[in-house]
Each structure stands twice: as C-alpha cells, then as structure tokens.
Amino acid sequence: MKLIDSHSHLILEAFDNDREEVIEQAFSCGVTHIVQSCDNLQEIERNLILANKYKNIWSSVGIHPHEAKTWTNESKDTILNYTKEEKVIAIGETGLDFFYNYSPQDVQIAVFHEQIKIAKEVSLPLIIHCRDAFKETIELLKIEKLEKGVFHCYTGDMETAKEALKLGLYISWSGILTFKNANDLRLIAKEIPLEKTLIETDCPFLTPLPYRGKRNEPKYVQYVAQELAKIHNVTPEEIGEITSNNTKKLFGIT
Ligand code: NI
C-alpha cells in the first residue's frame, strides 16, 4: 500500500531521539511522501533542513492560530521569502482555534486573514487548522474566495464540510476517524467524495487505533486509510492511491 502523510510535525521534541529512524520506518512501511506542517517562523528553518535532506519531505510555512500573537510587521515578508524555497509548498498551518484561545480571537482572525491573502498572492494552497470556529473560518474563506487548500484534521459538521467543498477545498482525516466515539465524523467522511479527501497523522498527536495513547508517527497513517476504506467500502490500496493523487495535485508535488 502506498500512502502520503499530508500533515506531520516531525521536528517536535517527541522525535528528538529517533527522528531518522521514524522517517526511514515510514518510508519502508509504504509512506511515499510526508508534508511537514509549520507552526511558527522559528520552526521553518528546521522543517527545511529536514525537507532538504529527504527527497520526499516537503514543508509549509506559516503561523498556527495558537501562535497568532507572535505575528509582527515582518511576518508577511518572512513568509513570502520562504515561499521561494523549492521545498515550501503551502501556507500554514493557519486558521482559528476558539477551543484553546492561546491567542486572542481578534488576533487569530487578523493573522488568519493575512495568511489567506498571502496564499492567494503566491498561489500556494492553504493548510487550515480549525477548532470550535467553523462559522468564522468559512466566512473568511468565502470573503477571500479561497479555492486551494485543505481543512486539516477535520472535526467540523456536515454543513461546514459542504461549504468547504463548494469553495473547492479538500478535507483531511486524521487518526480521530478511528476513535470509538467518532461516529458523527465517520458519517461525514462517508459523504465527502474521495476525490476531495486527504489523510494525515498530525503526528506526534492524535494516534489512531490500535496505538491510541502512544506517540503518533507517519507510518500509522495506514490506520486512517484502513478506516476510510471501511467507511467507503473500498480497499485501503484504493484509498492510498486516491488520497496520494489528491495530495500531489493540491500541493503540486510529484
Ligand atoms: Ni498540525
């Protein structure tokens, strides 16, 4: 089975002792590509070192809603500069997180809006993080008519998913889809055309069953694929093929 992990955080401390081993294992377990998500402008350098070391690791550049308060007058130019790097293929992750509210909501909205505009300006897809702020998120995306992007680790309702699809956006499923209490999410996943679906780990977080509770790794994206295969009544191999093609198309990678 060939799979792409469309969202990982391999530079976090959780991988400091065995990062290379984790990456090698993922590649030997059928993961063909890994897209590294960037949470702040300190992380981007380390993401790039990793991406430049491995042919099939790419990275986004941007500021996570938790860290929206770190936005400065220079942030836009810094992000724009990094988009010139060959291995930078998306803006994000950005969005709104009104569950944790680690940054004030008005700051989150302003910084998200800036990054939507940057994505449009440089024609790169946007990686969207959204928790408990789906209405506000869709509203901003609609104002800017954002067409290229993905709702990563989707946890919203059917209505929002349909709004996202209308804009042309993709929906990405994480290990949450395998959780016993995620029936609502599985029902939504069934309604989303596979042609608009990506899969991811968001590692080291959100480890799918049967490894829930342990550290997540890119190789566990296979369990998300298996769950989605059950939901759509197709083989995991088909899920791998379709979601890999979608990911390559969205991020413009081969
Ligand atoms: Ni993430």
Overview of this protein structure:
- It is a single chain.
- By secondary structure, this protein is α/β, with parallel strands linked by helices.
- The protein has one domain (3-251): TIM Barrel, CATH 3.20.20.
- 41% of the residues lie in helices and 17% in strands.
- The protein contains 9 helices and 8 strands.
- It has an 8-stranded parallel beta sheet with strand order 1-2-3-4-5-6-7-8.
- α5 packs parallel to α6 (158-167) and α8 (221-232) packs across α9.
- The radius of gyration is 17 Å and the shape is globular.
- The structure holds nickel (II) ion (NI).
- The site of nickel (II) ion (NI) has 5 residues, from loops.
CATH architecture: Alpha-Beta Barrel
Percentage of residues in strands: 15-25%
The CATH topology turns out to be TIM Barrel
Hetero ligands = nickel (II) ion
Shape: globular
Please give the radius of gyration in angstroms: 17 Å
Structural class: alpha/beta
